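Internal ticket - ligand job 267, magnesium ion:
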Amino acid sequence: MSAGINIDYISHTFKGQAEPTLKDIDLTIKPAERVALIGRSGCGKSTLLHMLAGLMLPSEGCVRIHGHTLTRPSAKYNMMFQKPSLYPWMTVRQNAELGLLFAGKKDPDKVDRLLAMVGLSDKADVSVQSLSGGQQQRVALARSLATSPEVLLLDEPFSALDAFTRSDLQDEVSRIVGSEDLTMVIVTHDIEEAVAMADRVLIMDANPGRLIGELTINLPFPRNRGAREFSDKRTELMNKFEKLVGDDASPESSGQIDDSAASFAAA
Ligand SMILES: Nc1ncnc2c1ncn2[C@@H]1O[C@H](COP(=O)(O)OP(=O)(O)O)[C@@H](O)[C@H]1O
Ligand SMILES: [Mg+2]
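stdout (C-alpha cells):
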C-alpha cells in the first residue's frame, strides 16, 4: 500500500542559529506519487528529507503520513543515502536482510526475491567488498526494500556513480517504485535525474530553505532519455530553475546545479 504525505507548514531553526534553515514548507504528496526535490547545495533538502523519514522533528509544523503525525523513524518510510553504508565483513545477502532481522522477521525467500529484483542473485554469497559502487548501491536498495516500505526516500543516492551506472539504477529504481506501488521522494542536484524519475519536481531556494516552484513531468515510465519530450522537459526545468533561483554566485550556493547545467549544455 502506498502512502500520502502531508507536510504542514514546516519551519526549522537549528540550535544556536539565528535564521531558520527551513521556512513554511507546505506540501501534499499523493499516494504513489514520485517527487524530486532540487536545489543548490545547502538549501535544506537533506534536512527536509530527514523530517520525512522521522529522523528529525521540525521546530514548527509537522509531517503526516496516512494522516498520522510522524514522531519517530519507521521501517515504513525508508531512506537511501549517497553512500550505501554496508557492513564490509558481511555478504550481499547478510547486508540485504539486515532490515528484516532488525524488525525480527527472518524471511530468506523474500531476500532472494529482492536480490533478484535488483539483479544480484548471482552475488548473494560474495562479500560486499568485491562489488562495484553501483552493485553496492543495489544492495542498499534491496535492504531498503526488505521491510516493504510504503515510502522510499532517496538522498542523492546515485551521485557517486558513473553516468551509465547512474542511469541504469535510476531506471531500475523507477521500475521497482512502480511495481511495488511506492511513494517516492528523491533529493537531487541533477536536472536530468529529476526528469528521469519524477512525476513532479519541486524547486527549493536557500536562506531560508523554501519551495519556490514546481514542474510536472507527465511522461510515461519507462522514461526515454532520447525522446524529444524528455529533452524538452529537461530544458523547461533548467530554464525554470535558473529563472527562479538565479545565477547566485555566492560560494555556498555555487557548484552542484551548475555542474548539471554544464553537462546539459555539453549534451
Ligand atoms: N545539525 C545541524 N546543525 C546546524 N546546522 C545544520 C545542521 N544540519 C544542517 N545544517 C545547515 O542547514 C543548512 C541545510 O543543510 P542540508 O539540509 O544538508 O542542505 P542540502 O541537503 O540542501 O545540501 C546548511 O546551511 C547546513 O549547514
Ligand atoms: Mg544534502
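Auto-summary: Residues 14, 17, 21, 39, 41-47 surround adenosine-5'-diphosphate (ligand 1) (CB under 6 Å). Residues 81 and 155 are 5 Å apart (CA to CA).
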